[in-house]
Amino acid sequence: MQYPLSPILLALALVAGAPALAQTQPAKPAEKAAAPAKPAAKPAGKPALARSAQKAVEEATPIDDDPSVTLTPSDLDVAKQVFVGDIPCELGATVRVRAARRDGIFVVTTKGYRFVMHPVESRTGAIRLEDAKRGAMWLQLGNKSMLMSQKLGQRLADECQSPQQVTMADELKKNPRPSILDAPRPAASAPAADPAAAAPPAGTDPASPPPAAPKTTN
């Protein structure tokens, strides 16, 4: 004979069986891990310039003056005598000399070369500009100039003449100045004395005094 279960026992049975029921249910699949964040895109770099464009940019970029160069008042006086502008040279070359932002500093350019120069003392009295960093020199004489690379050991431009130097060259052709290599001219000798005028008259003693002049009466 079966006895009906009391409500209390039935409730206890349901509570006891709940954990087992939970274990038998299939577990939900784990959520997919979040996809790793994509690295931020790198900013696009500046496009590379062509060589011709790079050269144009560099030529248009001003050259900073060398602050280590100290110019004396004498150097500034020499700088005032430097011819500036486009100066034609032999073999079709041209040298451009222009004043930089700083007094006494010059930018000297020719085909493929660019220098920042300043006056230096010259032992010959010529105007001399130098770029010590690049080993270049601009020598300005009265009738011509030249650009020399001491670093390369060669002249970059020669026989350069500004309008003032052309005028000086023409003047020197008309009135050449004596060179220190020319032999000095002999000094003009005094004319020889006439021996007949110096000889005493015949029949007189050279040692006797000359006769006295006759006295005159009033």
Q: In what range is the share of β-strand residues?
A: 15-25%
Q: What is the number of beta strands?
A: 8
Q: Percent of residues in helical segments?
A: 10-25%
Sheet having the most strands: 8 strands, antiparallel
The H-and-E topology, N to C, reads as HHHEEEEEEEEHH
Whole-number mean pLDDT: 75
Q: What general outline do the C-alpha atoms trace?
A: rod-shaped
> The CATH topology of the domain at 68-174, please?
Lipocalin
CATH first level of the domain at 68-174: which class? Mainly Beta
Our count of helices gives: 5
Distance between the termini: 220 Å
Rg value: 53 Å
> What strand order characterises the main sheet?
1-2-3-4-5-6-7-8
Q: Which segments are poorly predicted (pLDDT under 50) over 5 or more consecutive residues?
A: none
By secondary-structure content and strand pairing, the structural class works out as alpha+beta
CATH-scheme architecture of the domain at 68-174 = Beta Barrel
Walk me through what this model shows.
The chain has a domain at about 70-175: Beta Barrel (Lipocalin), CATH 2.40.128. The chain is about 25% helix and about 20% strand. The chain is built from five helices and eight strands, in the order H-H-H-E-E-E-E-E-E-E-E-H-H. It has helices spanning about 5-25, 50-60, 75-80, 165-175, 195-200; strands at about 85-90, 95-100, 105-110, 115-120, 125-130, 135-140, 145-150, 155-160. An eight-stranded antiparallel β-sheet has the order 1-2-3-4-5-6-7-8. A hairpin with a 6-residue loop joins strand 2 (about 95-100) and strand 3. The relative contact order is 0.08.
